[in-house]
Fold Aspartate/glutamate racemase family protein.
Amino acid sequence: MILKGGLLHTDTPIGVLCLESYFPKPPGHLRNPVTFDFPVTYKVLRGIDVPTLLFNPTPELVAPFIEAARALEREGAMAITGSCGFLARFQKELTEAVRVPVLVSGLIQIPMVRTFHGPDAVIGVLTASKDALTPMHFAQVGGDINDVVIKGMEGCPEFWETIIEARRTDFDMDRLEAEICGAAEALMAEHNLDALVLECTDLSAFARSIQERIGCPVYDIDGLIEYARYAVKRKRYHGL
């Protein structure tokens, strides 16, 4: 058997484009390697942080992401994702720049979730910032902002001060979980959701708690990555 070489690493299904950030990434976060039971490689884009992508995404910002995506592909990544759902604005440019599958935002799942749940279902989106989320983010992944109801994490100090403003690098997990679950519960109370999509990758560590609190299907980037992994690197089964 010939094992193909020519790559920096082997059998790495997923490469992650990462913003530069220093707040904790607990288990369940895609930037914590224990989250997945398969290899993941990371490419941090130094100098591009959360506030830049959310609130000052100039047209020139796409170039370093394209360069990093191409580097991940050259190094052996079989599919490419991203550490922030707001990378949806670059989905089309990134898919055109590489040959491997690109899935840089949990928002990509919205058309699929609509198909799963039917035309009359109420689909919610929990996002880092409702103010920063635009029709463009949805259009780039084949969705429509008018097809969902949205709630942001504005007004949640533990989340906002650490993840958005980077005032400090530690957060209180209990407070953060309470804020995130509280936001999801508020969205459910207002709209009686049939499904919830998490835009923000920083919410995924709390997806099970959200699901238990609101009692409906919850879709996030972790599930999308697992889906892509099966597409590019199938498990080998033994027996009948």
